[in-house]
Amino acid sequence: MSERFDFAIVGAGIAGASLAAALAPHGRVALIEAEDRPGYHSTGRSAAFWTESYGGPRVQPLTTASRAFLDQHGLLTERGALTLARANEAEGLAAFVREFSALGVRVETLGRAALERRLPGLRSEWQLGAYEPDCCDIDVAGLHQLWLAEGKRLGTELLCRARMIGARHGAVGWTIELADGRTLQARVLVNAAGAWADLVAQAAGVAPLGMKPLRRTVAQLRMDRTVPSTLPLTLGFDGSFYFKPEGGKLWLSPHDETPSQPCDVAAEELDVALAIERFEAVLDWPIAALEHKWAGLRTFAPDRLPVYGFDPTARDFFWFAGQGGFGIQTAPAAAELALGLLLNQPRGAVDPEPYSPARFR
């Protein structure tokens, strides 16, 4: 006989774990994970920062609303974010500062002398910057484990090595088929499957939304000089790079977005070389060694906004997907928003309407 749940959540990364912990006081929850452990894919490969401009102005409300929870649980470490621009990008950078300042984000314009104080060895073409002092590093593993532990304490059943291969909706809700032959029943099916979100929808007989998994590369370098622990998260205004210190090393990315099938993605040599080339065009710092490289999938809806809500064409099917590269920094507010929608009890400071799947139907 199938076990029965109120909510079955497919995907135990940061999205699924956060929502499972939120839902657990309100019903019986199954958290279904295809891999051997939760967080194997995007959650476990994050560059782990919180900055309000990342993801754009329509994501910013979720990021800002998540700060209090992350602070409360001691999951943030001060970092600061610095967006670099060339002289011919001055107008665009000024518009960036105006836009986010109007949203209440602390951001200030820096000239060349101020940039040099924060980034010794900065090459001459970088003339302007926008500095966000409130940017922080996030303890991603700590955040994920906090929610997994809270869900477990409240009775969530975590099922690993449990790939969903089909689901059908009937008079008693969803019957969910797993690859190992088990079946579950649930009143509501929540799709928090990240890069696999469209595939999960199709397996449930629900039309996909056009989710696009994009590969993002990160490399860890050992430098032939001390990496200041106070170095800010540094990004290119043109979107071509970011880098940050991590444990005395340097993490950098070419900010790539290469279309990919949902898979256990790996870094490619060309992207790593591109990351190093772009870094060397920013700072005159000698590199001692490439120590590590990896890649993760950032999955976007067609308009690059997350998708939170019941599918208007499929009864009791809830989308919690499309968080792109900002899923961790927005996770607390997203879980609160989704909880309100699932319980039909609006809560929180963020309007859910821009994120509704109905915009694609």
Overview of this structure, please?
- It is a single chain.
- Strand 1, helix 1 and strand 2 form a beta-alpha-beta unit.
- The strands form three sheets. Strands 5, 6, 7, 13, 14, 15, 16, 17 and 18 form a nine-stranded mixed sheet that branches. Strands 1, 2, 9, 10, 11, 12, 19 and 20 form an eight-stranded mixed sheet that branches. A three-stranded antiparallel sheet has the order 3-8-4, with helices on one face.
- The chain has 361 residues and is α+β, with helices and mostly antiparallel strands.
- The model has no long low-confidence stretch (mean pLDDT 95).
- Helix 1 packs across helix 8 and helix 2 crosses helix 8.
TL;DR?
With about 350 residues, the chain is of the alpha+beta class.
Q: Give helix % range.
A: 10-25%
Strand content: 25-35%
Q: What's the gyration radius in Å? A: 21 Å
Runs with pLDDT <50, length 5+?
none
Q: What is the average of the pLDDT values?
A: 95
H and E order: EHEEHEEHEHEEHEEEEHEEEEEHEEEH
Tally the helices. 8
Query: Which structural class matches the secondary elements?
Result: alpha+beta
The biggest beta sheet reads: 9 strands, mixed
Shape: elongated
The total of beta strands comes to 20
- Terminal Cα separation, in Å? 36 Å
Brief descriptors of the model:
361 residues; alpha+beta; nine-stranded mixed β-sheet; eight-stranded mixed β-sheet; 20 strands; 31% strand; elongated
Could you outline the blueprint of secondary structure elements for this entry?
Layout (H helix, E strand, L loop, with lengths): L2 E8 L3 H10 L5 E4 L16 E2 L9 H13 L3 E3 L2 E6 L3 H13 L5 E3 L1 H7 L7 E7 L3 E3 L1 H14 L3 E3 L4 E7 L2 E6 L4 E9 L5 H7 L8 E12 L9 E4 L5 E5 L2 E5 L4 E2 L9 H12 L6 E14 L6 E4 L6 E5 L9 H13 L18
Parallel strand pairs: 1-2, 1-12, 2-9, 5-14, 12-20
Antiparallel strand pairs: 3-8, 4-8, 5-7, 6-7, 10-11, 11-12, 13-16, 13-17, 13-18, 14-15, 15-16, 19-20
Helix pairs in contact: 1-5, 1-8, 2-8
